[in-house]
Amino acid sequence: MSTLFPAHAFGERYDLPIPLLLFVVAGVAVVVVSCLLVRPRAVRADDGNADVPDRAPDAALNVPTTVVSLGGLLLLGLGGLLGSNEVAENILPTVFWLVVWIMVPLSCGLMGDWTRALNPYANLVRLVDRPGLRRAVLSRAVPLRYPRWLGWWPAVLLFFAMASGELIFNLSATQPKVIAWGLMLYAVLTAFCGLLFGQAWLQHGEVFSVLFATWGRLGFFRFAASGRRGFAGGLVVPFERSASRVVFVMLLLVSVNFDGLLATPAWSRFEQARAGIDQNAVQYLRITSFVLLTALICAVFGAFAYLAARAGGHRTGFRDFLNGLAPSLLPIAFGYLLAHTAQYVLVNIQLLGPLIGNPVGSASWPIHLPYPFNDTYEPNATFLPSAFYWYLGVTVIVGVHVIAVILAHRHLGSRATGDAKARASEYPWLVAMVAYTAFSLLLIAQPLVNESNAGQGAALAPNSQGTQQPSTTHNHGTTTDMTDMPGMTHEHGSGDSPWNQPHDHGTAAAPQDRPLALVLGTFGGGTSAVLLSAGFLRRKDRARAQARQAARAASRARS
Question: How high is the pLDDT of residue 244?
Answer without folding.
Answer: 95
